[in-house]
Amino acid sequence: MTQFLKGKVALVTGASRGIGAAIAKRLAAEGADIVFSYAKSRERAHAVASEIEALGVKVLAVAADQADSAAVAALVRTAHDHFGRLDILVNSAGIFVTGIIGDPQVDIAELEHQQAVNIGGVVAAVRAAVPLLSDGGRIVSVGTMFASRAPFPGIGDYAASKAAVAAYGRAWARDLGPRQITVNTVQPGPINTEMNPETSDVAAMVKQMTALGRYGQPEEIAGAVAFLVGPDAAYITGATLNIDGGQNS
């Protein structure tokens, strides 16, 4: 690793597992000190923190409810206060709830909670972070390729929540451009995580939908995020990057 983030502080939300954990560990490997949030699993969070600490950087794990805007704002302040600066914000926390419109069996409360996490949590984090971010800082949000294409029923609310994040990102890029703060969105396709394992019953069908014929790995998303928060991406902002193995091609 080139350690091009040495001296930087990164906050990654939702990083006790999956894509978020991979991002936190990759940024740590590049030299950044890490603050990350988790929802419930303290044991998992501590395991990730131990892995990050072993990379020779400092780390702080914070429990925070992403659906609670006040808790998210407190998380951001804690990150800044703990290390005395904040350079990178990665909005990785999110949930996936499905429901076909008009289906009386759909749990509307769960769909509304999804909106609170996937949209409200991102907005709260960015609003709290902007006054604290260093000029030239980086914001990256993790969306989904479903924001661009809905290949099967029942994903409308989820897709819309992530499409909103991408739209916010484009607008925030304009708002923060004068401070040289870049804002970008990565949109993963099928990624091998606990929520969507490459060994599931539908895995064969999913693989056929991609140009590369396989699932992606969390580390492949992390690599793209590391690039976007690094010095070589200083002229990339307002972008939406599909990382989906060609599923949207």
Characterize this entry briefly.
The protein is α/β, with parallel strands linked by helices. It has helices spanning 18-29, 42-53, 69-83, 108-129, 156-176, 203-208, 218-228, and strands at 9-12, 33-38, 59-63, 86-91, 133-142, 182-188, 240-243.
Task: Explain this structure.
There is one protein chain. This protein is of the alpha/beta class and 249 residues long. The chain has one domain (9-242): 3-Layer(aba) Sandwich (Rossmann fold), CATH 3.40.50. The protein has 7 helices and 7 strands, in the order E-H-E-H-E-H-E-H-E-H-E-H-H-E. The protein has helices at residues 18-29, 42-53, 69-83, 108-129, 156-176, 203-208, 218-228, and strands at 9-12, 33-38, 59-63, 86-91, 133-142, 182-188, 240-243. A 7-stranded parallel sheet has the order 3-2-1-4-5-6-7, sandwiched between helices. Strand 5, helix 5 (156-176) and strand 6 (182-188) form a beta-alpha-beta unit. The longest helix is centred in the middle third of the chain and has 22 residues, at 108-129. The radius of gyration is 17 Å and the shape is globular. It starts with 8 loop residues before the first strand and ends in a 6-residue tail after the last strand. The model has no long low-confidence stretch (mean pLDDT 96).
